[in-house]
């Protein structure tokens, strides 16, 4: 079963299904009426790590720009639920009053409700009105700095692990082949997450907090990370020099607790879905458009399901990453934070920001997977 599926989608196949054709097409060339020799099915192992990384990085770049506003909305909602106040930068009673002259008294600029987010669209509207439309892309530079190496590691490693495990299980344990996408996705995501985690920490903090000084440019990735380190070093905690750098990985357990099941759910849903779609709309005659459509559709469904199922762990990850007390940040655990979220907000608290998270993840996974597979498809035709 697994072999027939890989043959059907030849640009995704492992070398187990490659057809040896060294003896074909070598006959007499005088007979122009003879049909051309059939093409050798593409073996995805022919793609080097550089080509895979290029395909994945391009997909990550496109996705990060398109869906960043929803990521900002999700982070703001989760941060607000964790206690971050989004008041006006001039939030004291005197400075929030606009003076209209000595005899005209004062009037409030905006009531406190102006600075409380009620939902995804409300977040987007208030950010545009209060901070400017460019703030919807706050953290995009961190997102790009994160997405390119992360996906550049994640998708190529997934491809390589999946191909190797499919070949191994097909020979040794055919009944376990179904679980290959789940295992390969989890391992690849763990490697990518561990490698690039400090940039993820910076991105979340950049999106969660407003700049409180009017006219001042918000800190970038490096400044944000330096601020996290210096905040820990300024405390009187023993060994604060070492902890200053360890804090850059605080919350990584929560991130792995979110990303590993996300990848497992995503890939175990995506693989059979896209194979079925490719069989329906293209099969052996699939073109770039059908590859794009099948992979985007499968990625959209898989990303949506995985994002919804792992939302509570995403809430925990955000809460741990935005903790400003360095002592508490180093002592927090994923389990304790999960119980804290449940105690404070119940089921609703665990699914804070689920709307923008699902709305972001579906298109994001669809864009990344479809772009990645289309580039591989094009490279397949170059090889053949």
From TrEMBL:
<keyword id="KW-1133">Transmembrane helix</keyword>
<keyword id="KW-0813">Transport</keyword>
<dbReference type="GO" id="GO:0005743">
    <property type="term" value="C:mitochondrial inner membrane"/>
</dbReference>
<dbReference type="InterPro" id="IPR018108">
    <property type="entry name" value="MCP_transmembrane"/>
</dbReference>
<feature type="compositionally biased region" description="Polar residues">
    <location>
        <begin position="7"/>
        <end position="19"/>
    </location>
</feature>
<keyword id="KW-0812">Transmembrane</keyword>
<keyword id="KW-0999">Mitochondrion inner membrane</keyword>
<dbReference type="Pfam" id="PF00153">
    <property type="entry name" value="Mito_carr"/>
</dbReference>
<feature type="repeat" description="Solcar">
    <location>
        <begin position="290"/>
        <end position="378"/>
    </location>
</feature>
<dbReference type="GO" id="GO:1990542">
    <property type="term" value="P:mitochondrial transmembrane transport"/>
</dbReference>
<dbReference type="InterPro" id="IPR023395">
    <property type="entry name" value="MCP_dom_sf"/>
</dbReference>
<protein>
    <recommendedName>
        <fullName>Mitochondrial carrier protein</fullName>
    </recommendedName>
</protein>
<feature type="repeat" description="Solcar">
    <location>
        <begin position="176"/>
        <end position="276"/>
    </location>
</feature>
<keyword id="KW-0472">Membrane</keyword>
<comment type="similarity">
    <text>Belongs to the mitochondrial carrier (TC 2.A.29) family.</text>
</comment>
<keyword id="KW-0677">Repeat</keyword>
<feature type="repeat" description="Solcar">
    <location>
        <begin position="47"/>
        <end position="164"/>
    </location>
</feature>
<dbReference type="InterPro" id="IPR045315">
    <property type="entry name" value="Mtm1-like"/>
</dbReference>
<keyword id="KW-0496">Mitochondrion</keyword>
<feature type="region of interest" description="Disordered">
    <location>
        <begin position="1"/>
        <end position="46"/>
    </location>
</feature>
């Amino acid at each position: 079963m697994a072999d027939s599926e890989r043959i059907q989608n030849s640009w995704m196949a492992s070398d187990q299904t490659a057809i040896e054709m060294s003896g074909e097409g070598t006959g007499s060339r005088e007979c122009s009426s003879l049909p051309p020799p059939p093409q050798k099915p593409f073996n995805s192992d022919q793609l080097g790590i550089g080509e895979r990384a290029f395909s994945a990085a391009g997909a990550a770049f496109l996705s990060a720009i398109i869906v960043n506003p929803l990521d900002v909305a999700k982070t703001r909602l989760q941060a607000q639920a964790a206690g971050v106040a989004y008041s006006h930068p001039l939030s004291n009673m005197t400075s929030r009053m606009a003076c209209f002259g000595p005899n005209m008294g004062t009037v409030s600029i905006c009531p406190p409700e102006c600075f409380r987010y009620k939902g995804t669209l409300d977040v987007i509207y208030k950010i545009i009105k209060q901070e400017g439309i460019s703030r919807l892309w706050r953290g995009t530079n961190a997102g790009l700095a994160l997405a390119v190496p992360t996906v550049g590691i994640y998708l190529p490693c997934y491809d390589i692990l999946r191909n190797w495990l499919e070949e191994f299980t097909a020979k040794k344990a055919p009944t376990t082949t179904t679980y290959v996408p789940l295992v390969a996705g989890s391992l690849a995501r763990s490697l990518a997450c561990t490698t690039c985690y400090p940039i993820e920490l910076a991105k979340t903090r950049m999106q969660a907090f407003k700049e409180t000084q009017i006219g001042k440019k918000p800190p970038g990735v490096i400044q944000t990370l330096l601020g996290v380190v210096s905040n820990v070093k300024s405390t009187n905690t023993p060994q604060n020099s070492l902890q200053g750098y360890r804090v850059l990985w605080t919350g990584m357990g929560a991130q792995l607790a979110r990303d590993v099941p996300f990848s497992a759910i995503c890939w175990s849903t995506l693989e059979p879905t896209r194979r079925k779609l490719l069989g329906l709309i293209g099969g052996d005659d699939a073109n770039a458009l059908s590859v794009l459509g099948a992979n985007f559709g499968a990625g959209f469904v898989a990303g949506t399901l995985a994002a919804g199922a792992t939302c509570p762990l995403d809430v925990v990850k955000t809460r741990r990453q935005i903790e400003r007390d360095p002592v508490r940040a180093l002592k927090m655990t994923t389990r304790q934070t999960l119980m804290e979220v449940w105690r404070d907000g119940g089921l609703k608290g665990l699914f804070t920001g689920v709307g923008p998270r699902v709305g972001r993840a579906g298109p994001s996974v669809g864009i990344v997977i479809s772009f990645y597979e289309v580039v591989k498809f094009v490279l397949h035709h170059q090889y053949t």
